[in-house]
Design goal:
13 strands, globular, 7-stranded parallel sheet, 15 helices, about 375 residues, 6-stranded parallel sheet
């Protein structure tokens, strides 16, 4: 059993642009709030001192040869300082060769946990096996992802489900009605504008809708698909009149208020997902959700009457989107209060903190159970 408080190194991406970044930052906040001494190693595009850790190290994430040299140097510095810090616990919230180095430098007295939050790695991948073998335990975000770790990497790996932190604090939840005009349906997407999210397919499916008036779709976020999506919306009349690319969205209470203002969330991911935190955040304000069967999403969606889950591909998405809008219009399928209640029972901040508290009490016992 570990004596409290602990010395903990947490390593992973930091920022507000994605679920893994949110989780890393919120995990740090939780650990510090519990009185632990935290050394943070964060992967960002530029140096930042934001956060509550005792000390932080930033790893360069800049393109080009010069950026690679800086990155190797930063990882070596992080490994050296980790060894000097002599942590009781190392938590890596992402995967890669740098995280393997960090584990090897941490020291024999350190219990080392690596989190795996997607299932897009190949079977029997030597790199993943080498990474996992450098850690004492694997924390998978959902049951499906845990099964994938054992099926794809090793059936004997010490692996248990451990949820990711979202940004919904009890005081930040809003109970407001959607801000819509009579007869208007407003849906939203929140997240990265990336290829795996299925946004181009979403626009294709949206262009097939045959409602009058057309529902409105707001796409919130930034990413490398922005210019392609803007062009697609511009040249398609049905899209230009009903779809708006809104850009970056706020975080914290303002994000929750914005999320609450819609009548539904759409997340049509086609690959590379765990359990996206935006699904939990939408459930916290009772939004019905249209999403896909990718990654760990079915662990959240199966048996959830306020989620419609579709297979990947345009045909399934188009049918699901049409049905989703009809259900919202008819008003007799989805129940915002019911969805909020599910969130409070299974995914609330206290539920996540309770799971992590069990880990901190005795990491070895938690993962050997």
């Amino acid at each position: 059993m570990c004596a409290l408080p602990l010395k903990i190194v947490i390593a992973g991406p930091l920022g507000s642009s994605g679920g893994l970044e949110v989780h890393t930052g919120e995990l740090e906040l939780f650990l510090v709030s519990q009185g632990h001494r935290v050394l943070r190693i964060n992967i960002i595009s530029q140096n930042s001192s934001n956060g509550n850790a005792y000390r932080h190290i930033s790893i360069s994430n800049v393109a080009g040869t010069k950026g690679k040299v800086y990155k190797v140097f930063d990882w070596l510095k992080a490994c050296f300082l980790t060894r000097l810090f002599a942590p009781d616990l190392l938590i890596s919230t992402a995967i890669g060769s740098g995280y393997k180095w960090l584990s090897l430098f941490a020291g024999s007295r350190t219990f080392r946990i690596v989190q795996i939050v997607t299932d897009d790695y190949p079977h029997n991948d030597a790199g993943m096996l080498s990474l996992v073998q450098a850690y004492d335990a694997v924390a998978a975000q959902t049951s499906i992802l845990k099964d994938q770790v054992r099926a794809k990497i090793s059936p004997t790996v010490s692996c248990r489900v451990l949820p990711c932190f979202h940004q919904i604090h009890p005081a930040s939840r809003e109970s407001i009605l959607p801000q819509t005009l009579p007869g208007e349906i407003r849906l939203a997407y929140f997240g990265r504008l990336a290829g795996n999210k299925g946004l181009s397919l979403l626009l294709d499916a949206w262009a097939q809708l045959n409602f009058s008036p057309l529902p409105k779709l707001d796409i919130w976020g930034s990413g490398n698909l922005l210019s392609n999506l803007e062009e697609k919306v511009r040249i398609t009349s049905s899209l230009s009149s009903s779809v708006t690319l809104k850009g970056p969205y706020p975080c914290g209470p303002e994000y929750i208020k914005l999320l609450s203002s819609y009548q539904g969330l759409v997340l049509p991911s086609q690959s590379t997902e765990g359990l996206p935190l935006v699904l939990l955040e939408a459930a916290s304000v009772g939004l019905p959700i249209l999403t896909s069967t990718v990654g760990g999403i079915p662990d959240f969606a199966n048996g959830n009457p306020d989620v419609i889950m579709v297979d990947i591909g345009l045909q399934s998405l188009a049918i699901g989107l049409n049905n989703f809008i009809c259900f919202i219009h008819n008003g007799d399928k989805f129940d915002r209060s019911r969805h909020k209640s599910l969130f409070l029972r299974q995914y609330s901040r206290p539920a996540i903190e309770s799971a992590w508290s069990r880990v901190l009490h005795s990491p070895s016992s938690f993962f050997s159970a």
